[in-house]
UniProtKB/TrEMBL annotation, chain A:
Signal peptide: none annotated. It is a multi-pass membrane protein. It comes from Motilibacter rhizosphaerae. Coiled coil: none annotated. Residues 61-250 form the ABC transmembrane type-1 domain. This is Carbohydrate ABC transporter membrane protein 2 (CUT1 family). The chain crosses the membrane at residues 57-77, 97-121, 133-150, 171-196, 230-250. One of its GO terms (cellular component) is plasma membrane. It is found in: Cell membrane. GO terms for biological process: transmembrane transport. Belongs to the binding-protein-dependent transport system permease family. Keywords: Cell membrane, Membrane, Transmembrane, Transmembrane helix, Transport.
TrEMBL record, chain B:
It is found in: Cell membrane. The chain crosses the membrane at residues 23-43, 80-103, 115-138, 176-199, 220-240, 272-292. Belongs to the binding-protein-dependent transport system permease family. PROSITE patterns: ABC_TM1 (PS50928). Residues 81-293 form the ABC transmembrane type-1 domain. GO terms for biological process: transmembrane transport. This is Carbohydrate ABC transporter membrane protein 1 (CUT1 family). Its main location: membrane. InterPro entries: ABC_transporter_permease, MetI-like, MetI-like_sf. The keyword Transmembrane applies. It is a multi-pass membrane protein. It comes from the Bacteria.
Length: 264, 303
């Protein structure tokens, strides 16, 4: 009995996504005739065709991948470098730096949004990839997460490597990073998902439609008159698909990553 | 005199200070980015909030706390704050209650419960923009599934997003649906960490499922519940995407959030000083919540 209720609730939870696919795969006439049915009476791929025709779609998908992927790669590199220094090297100002990084976690990004927008404006970086990417290319949360992971790796590893003549870069690149794949993967997943789904930031930095990312462009499309329902739902489905696929294939990393991001 | 002696014979400490430390090369990229894109903007934002600062003007008039004083008399700001607080309270309460209920229901790991868990978590993966678009159409009076079904069920067609009394509750419902999977996952992890002997002992004492939940699960879970409540609260306070996409803040500002008003003032009207003041008010509210979180986490450590 409880199982039936739960299964029903689970189905109701994902129903909006099933309906989204249903609308994407049916002509508008079918939708207006039978709005209460989830499955199309007639099937059609026009929605997917329309979204490709009506939006610079390939461009938008590419932009989103460049933004989310490029930022993530840089972020993983910069964060792990800093986390390595904080966890395993000695230098003046180390504690102050760590406290400063933790303190920035408290500040909501809406506070920095306006000055950063101004800076990008003065640099002429609005509507550019580097303008989108660079301000996001390091994350205090990432540094913190990786530092916590690096600290608990055994110190003897560094000592042994140092006796063999390894410098800090070699220890970082050949020992610490390979041992930290699970932490790096979790960080990659949460950051990639957050960037892929980010809305306000690309909305502010890009106004040129060909520079937009998917979430920001879709809403622009949805507020124009005479919207093609099928096209909009197809666009939503396509924008959801990479993360949905990644989630279904690698749930473990998603759940680990999300639980860790909860620490924010 | 002392300065002269230390200057002529540098001690080991001073010499160490002069030596280049390779650690600086490791932290340099992040430090530069954090300085340029986080620390400096925080200071600048505070400075701007004290000025009459419009986009493109060369001179910016200092006006002390004038922007903040204006906020006190800005009814649109108070409305946005009220909307944001109602949304935050509604979504946080709903997400925690639903998450707790489902975490308890899915406590034992079977293939069935892991399938259900995936389904419940799924909306969390979608972006707020996609969620907003899909729900706007689900609730559409002409083609929306929810609207059509509510008609069949005799609930009529209440015009979910255009009604001043229904728009915000509807949005809260969507917010809960989007986020309860996260709460559930975090609480589930906490529940599964509870030693099973506690449940066995309770069962030996004759406790049923409800009593076990009340006397074993809930007390042990208190820190985790407080924790997810704070997370849900901080997220709720930053409401923007959902209201922007679903209603645009309407009908007549009934769903306009603080961040949306900030966006309007900053990036549509280009009153950057005023928008900065709004950002700082938001900052103070979120900081207050975060300080509660710190206390909660400390409590957790003691536990």
């Amino acid at each position: 009995m409880a199982a039936v209720v739960l299964a029903g609730a689970a189905l109701a939870t994902i129903l909006p996504f099933l309906w989204m696919l249903g609308v994407a795969l049916r002509p508008a006439s079918d939708l207006y005739a039978h709005p209460a049915s989830i499955l199309p009476g007639h099937w059609s791929l026009d929605g997917f065709r329309a979204v490709v025709d009506q939006l610079p779609f390939g461009r938008l998908v590419l932009n989103t991948f460049v933004f989310a992927g490029g930022t993530c790669v840089l972020l993983l590199f910069f964060d792990s470098l800093t986390a390595y220094a904080l966890a395993r090297l000695e230098f003046r100002g180390k504690n102050a730096l760590f406290v400063l990084i933790l303190a920035t976690l408290m500040v909501p990004f809406q506070v920095t949004l306006i000055p950063v927008f101004l800076t990008l404006f003065h640099l002429g970086w609005l509507n550019t990839e580097h303008g989108l990417i660079l301000p996001r290319a390091t994350s205090a949360l990432g540094i913190f997460m990786l530092r916590q992971f690096f600290v608990q790796l055994p110190k003897e590893l560094d000592e042994a490597a140092r006796i063999d003549g390894a410098g800090p870069w070699t220890i970082y690149w050949r020992i610490i990073l390979p041992l930290s794949k699970p932490a790096l993967a979790s960080l990659f997943v949460i950051q990639f998902a957050a960037l892929w789904n980010d809305f306000l930031w690309p909305l502010v930095v890009t106004s040129d439609p060909s520079k937009r990312t998917l979430p920001a462009a879709l809403t622009m499309f949805s507020s124009s008159d005479g919207v093609d329902h099928a096209a909009l739902m197809a666009g939503a489905a396509i924008s959801l698909s990479p993360l949905a696929l990644a989630f279904l294939l690698a749930q473990r990393f998603f759940v680990q990553g999300v639980a860790a991001s909860g620490l924010k | 005199m002392t300065a002269l002696t230390t200057g002529t014979s540098p001690g080991p400490r001073a010499r160490r200070r002069l030596r280049w430390n390779p650690a600086y090369a490791f932290v340099a990229p992040s430090v530069v980015l954090i300085a340029v894109f986080i620390v400096e903007p925080i200071v600048q934002s505070g400075w701007m909030s004290l000025h009459d600062w419009s986009m493109g003007e060369a001179s910016h008039r200092m006006r002390g706390f004038g922007n903040y004083a204006d906020l006190l008399h800005d009814s649109r700001f108070w409305n946005a704050l009220k909307v944001t607080c109602l949304y935050t309270a509604g979504t946080a309460a709903g997400q925690v209650a639903l998450g707790l209920l489902l975490a308890e229901a899915l406590r034992r790991t079977t293939w069935f419960s892991s399938v259900l868990r995936t389904a419940f978590f799924f909306p969390f993966i979608a972006s707020m923009a996609v969620v907003g678009i899909v729900w706007r159409f689900l609730l559409d009076p002409q083609v929306g599934l929810v609207d059509a079904w509510s008609g069949h069920l005799g609930l009529g067609h209440p015009n979910w997003l255009q009604s001043t009394s229904l728009a915000l509750p509807t949005m809260i419902g969507v917010g809960i649906w989007k986020g309860f999977g996260f709460t559930m996952i975090v609480l589930l992890a906490a529940i599964q960490a509870i030693p099973t002997y506690l449940y066995e002992a309770a069962r030996l004492d004759g406790a049923g499922r409800v009593a076990q939940f009340r006397h074993v699960t809930l007390p042990t879970l208190r820190p985790s519940v407080l924790f997810v409540t704070v997370i849900a609260t901080i997220q709720g306070l930053q409401l923007f995407d959902l209201s922007y996409v679903m209603t645009g803040g309407g009908p007549v500002f009934h769903t306009e959030s603080v961040v949306q008003y900030l966006y309007q003032r900053g990036f549509v009207d280009f009153s950057l000083g005023y928008a900065s003041a709004i950002a700082w008010v938001l900052f103070v509210v979120i900081l207050a919540v975060a300080l509660v979180q710190l206390r909660v986490l400390r409590y957790r450590d003691v536990d």
